Amino acid sequence: MGNVRAGILGTGHSYPEGILTNADLEKTVETSDEWITTRTGIKQRRKAAPGEYTSQFAVRAARQAIERAGLEPSDIDLILCATVTPDQILPSTGCLIQAELGAHRAAAMDVVAACSGFLYGLTLANTMVQTGQSRNALVIGAEILTQYVDYSDRQTCVLFGDGAGAAVLGPVEGDRGILATRIKSDGRYEEQLYSPGGGTRRPPSAETLASGDHFFKMKGNELFKVAVRSMADISREVLEQAGLTAEDVSLFIPHQANQRITDAVANKLNVDDARVYSNIAMHGNTSSASIPIALDECVEAGRIKKDDLILLASFGGGVTWGGVLMRW
Ligand code: UT7
């Protein structure tokens, strides 16, 4: 297997132009900018227009990532698209992205792990590059969550937004690249965040549509505690795997679910605010897209420098959680 290490060669992101503000939501459900801001940190989220679909944003993010990696779509030999809001059931959104990009040499598929999907994808792609089965892997997180949000449910409708982020992974030299990965799930918590209708258990029908079975349903309060504990634990695990501590971390980019979750995890890890990235005010929770969007924003803003130690951690429906540690 040698000592090949995989690292991120390029990143990109894209989101719809439409913006849904807290003031907009105040007009449709019983909520307030004050409640949303203090309980979640969210001020606005992006919302796709009717007719827009997930792979459109994924392709834009992917093109940017491939270009910044100095590659062509034909150089990509693996495409993993993390999403819980695919364009359609068959074929995978990964295959639709492949066709649109013209990445004809790639194997393409979707990764369904909700908000942890991007870190699941990075973990799998990392192994494929390390073992030489792939050379240049494209990992995408892309969602149009607003199509599955019940805009009469004030607990969930204030949280979710749309967008896509992408990263190209390839072999890197020296001490750079992905140092440690860890992914976990616990299906016993299925009903804490789920969409019960529209699959084979409750096939789509006039009745499932009328009762809103296809919408996301969440027990936010219970999830909150599990999210904080799981993200802090898995962060410690990847740090330990690499023989490092939270003190060594240059930048912590957690999944953006709630500013209070981010603050609580950072506090547990003892990572001060200056080393934590948050964009939740602008994007809300974009599930699998949240970490790659945040990562690319940090790259564009010059917040990540060569040799920086970057810690990524996620938690989401399933429940699923993950951690990735890398030297930039
Ligand atoms: O992406 C990964 C998975 N997602 C998560 O990890 C999300 C985790 N959970 C959360 O972020 C938070 O639990 C929420 C933001 C969803 C809710 O915040 P909370 O502080 O846990 O509020 P709560 O559910 O305990 O509700 C407190 C009160 C309730 O009223 P009562 O019963 O005290 O009278 C709710 O009905 O706030 C009320 N409430 C609202 N009020 C105004 C709930 N949603 C709203 C709202 N506007 N949008």
Task: Describe this protein's structure.
This protein is globular. The protein has helices at residues 22-26, 33-40, 54-68, 93-101, 117-130, 154-157, 206-210, 220-241, 259-269, 280-283, 290-300, and strands at 5-14, 19-21, 44-46, 78-82, 107-111, 137-144, 162-172, 177-185, 193-194, 217-218, 251-254, 309-316, 320-327. It has 328 residues and is of the alpha/beta class. The chain has 2 domains: 5-173, 3-Layer(aba) Sandwich (Peroxisomal Thiolase, Chain A, domain 1), CATH 3.40.47; 179-327, Thiolase/Chalcone synthase (Peroxisomal Thiolase, Chain A, domain 1). The strands form 4 sheets. The protein has a 5-stranded mixed β-sheet, sandwiched between helices. A 4-stranded mixed β-sheet has the order 8-13-12-11, sandwiched between helices. A two-stranded antiparallel sheet has the order 2-3. The mean pLDDT is 97. Residues 31, 35-36, 39-40, 115, 154-155, 158, 193, 220-221, 223-224, 227, 257-258, 261, 285, 315-316 line the site of oxa(dethia)-CoA.
Short description:
The protein contains eleven helices and 13 strands. It is of the alpha/beta class and 328 residues long.
Summary keywords:
alpha/beta; Peroxisomal Thiolase, Chain A, domain 1; 2 domains; five-stranded mixed β-sheet; globular; binds oxa(dethia)-CoA
